[in-house]
Design a protein that fits this description.
Elements (H helix, E strand, L loop, with lengths): L3 E9 L3 E6 L2 E6 L2 H5 L6 E11 L2 E7 L2 H10 L7 H10 L2 H10 L2 H4 L7 H15 L9 H4 L5 H11 L4 H12 L9 H13 L2
Antiparallel strand pairs: 1-2, 1-4, 2-3, 4-5
Helix pairs in contact: 2-3, 3-8, 4-6, 8-9, 8-10, 9-10
């Protein structure tokens, strides 16, 4: 198993990066947040996991081991594949996802693209015991960070599902006029954006 890569960043796209190690370019799929921190020509280390399918071998890369571990843990739940697990990390930091599962916070989990109420309840049911006890300070962590706008969440969700930043921004521009106030339904907006992109 390829647990990590350290090498020169030779290419970065909206969903993947190429890390050259010993003359071999390794294509790694990553979240928009991870990709944004990579610089072509610079040295970088990504913690990786290899997802094997009948027709493909896909390497996923993360900035920290905790992200990789959570990515792998999420996929042990029924109905969760690599794409959904990556979408969770694109929208929330690992501590937020872990706390939401441990505390049964389905509202936070449903902000993940592709996770509805039943899916969130299933994640809590199947993974709560695997998450284990969290430090008391973790309880306040999900609220401590800088708020993420609905535009950022929808863009990250669309890019995690394979659309380009240009396509995502185009859909968000069309949705802008429909959003009124701060209380927005991220899941609903993401579904609308997917419908818009699907009718291109």
């Amino acid at each position: 198993m390829i647990a990590s890569l350290t090498g020169t960043v030779t290419h970065v796209s909206t969903s993947t990066a190429t890390i050259t190690v010993g003359g071999v370019g390794m294509s790694v799929r990553a979240t928009p947040g991870t990709l944004a921190n990579l610089r072509v020509g610079g040295e970088s280390t990504l913690y990786t996991t290899l997802v094997v399918r009948e027709d493909s071998l896909t390497l996923y890369g993360f900035e920290a081991p905790d992200e990789r571990d959570l990515f792998e843990l999420l996929q042990t739940a029924s109905g969760v594949g690599p794409r959904l697990a990556q979408a969770a990390l694109a929208v929330h930091p690992p501590a937020t996802v872990r706390h939401a599962i441990a505390s049964g916070d389905t509202a936070t989990l449903t902000r993940i693209p592709g996770v509805g109420k039943k899916g969130a309840e299933r994640l809590v049911l199947e993974l709560k015991d695997k998450i284990g006890a969290l430090p008391g300070s973790m309880a306040t962590e999900p609220k401590a960070g800088r708020p993420v706008s609905w535009r950022d969440q929808v863009q990250q969700g669309l890019m995690s599902l394979g659309w380009s930043a240009k396509d995502a921004n185009g859909a968000i521009t069309k949705l802008d006029s429909q959003v009124d106030g701060e209380a927005v339904d991220i899941q609903g907006l993401l579904k609308q954006a997917i419908r818009l992109l699907g009718t291109k």
